[in-house]
Amino acid sequence: MKTLESAPPEAPPNRAAAAGGKSRGGPGSARRQRARTGWAYTGPTLFVVGAVTIFPILFSVVLSFTSVRMTYDGFRIESFTTGNYAALLQSAEWREALLFTVFYTVVTVFAELVLGTLAALILERLGAGRGWIMALLLVPWSLITVVSAQLWGYIYDASYGLATWFFDAVLGHAPVILGTPSSAVGGMMIADIWKTTPFVAIIVLSGLVMLDRDVFEAAEIDGLGAWSTFWRVTLPQLRPVIGIAVLFRILQAFGIFDLPFVLTQGGPGTATQSLAILGYKTLFQNLNMGPGAAIATSTALLVLVCCLLFLRAFRSQVSEGELR
């Protein structure tokens, strides 16, 4: 007689399945909940940033395409036009300000890059005392630009300035540094280079301390000298860091305002008048709202195009270096 085998015990019911599959979206629901919480915390900050940054930019762009009439109550937009940009392209003063801004940016950024790299190479080889030297090096950079410009104004003063005393002692006569176009441009560049070279040095130093030491040991074994090692080993590895430093400096130098405003007010004549100074005078002194907004918008577009071109060229160079 066959014996009946006992049936296996039934598996316990799947509570997740009985719940209608609600647990399937558990991780996704948690992520969505975290995202909503993040937006809830950052939403007010983003709103404030948009109100004080994005809205004025968009309003300036719209204003650059308008014909504005000043009234006792403020201003009134009469019509929309592209005449502001047409007048801008035909303005000799705008072209002079553009040439000065480009020349100033190229010279100061190049000088700061060279001097900052040299300072970083020296600091990288120092042992004890590097922290103190870095702290002293950051003093010019930590100063507010207006304070720094006022300090250099005292140095360049034609009556009691330190530079006046030096030239008088060495040359026998003291030129008025801020009184002629060439010396005013040179003096302003020296003040800018003195202030911002430490910034470039610290960025390059941060890249130097992160380089792979094995590569330098291999270069030393291959018999490369110090100069060849710098050009063939150190500099190619520093390209990303140098690119960041140059990008930041282009953005700052192209929009230079406070240094010439305090030192020269754009003078003598228009020798040190940057695009930012020209826009300020047009917008706030002459109360030409449309042309002033057009100057500001064109300056922002030029900076954006220059940065995009630089990033594209820099990216291609980095890609070629990686392929090699």
What does this structure look like?
The protein has a two-stranded antiparallel ribbon with strand order 1-2. 72% of the residues lie in helices and 4% in strands. The protein starts with 14 loop residues before the first helix and ends with a helix. The chain is mainly alpha-helical and 324 residues long. It has 14 helices and two strands, in the order ααββαααααααααααα. It has helices at 15-18, 26-63, 83-89, 92-125, 130-142, 145-155, 162-171, 181-208, 213-221, 226-237, 239-254, 258-263, 275-285, 289-323; strands at residues 66-71, 74-80. The chain has one domain: MetI-like fold, CATH 1.10.3720. Helix 3 crosses helix 14 and helix 4 (92-125) runs antiparallel to helix 11 (239-254). This is Sugar ABC transporter permease. It comes from Streptomyces lycii. Residues 98-312 form the ABC transmembrane type-1 domain. It is found in: Cell membrane.
Quick rundown:
By secondary structure, the protein is mainly alpha-helical. The chain has helices at residues 15-18, 26-63, 83-89, 92-125, 130-142, 145-155, 162-171, 181-208, 213-221, 226-237, 239-254, 258-263, 275-285, 289-323, and strands at residues 66-71, 74-80. Strands 1-2 form a two-stranded antiparallel ribbon.
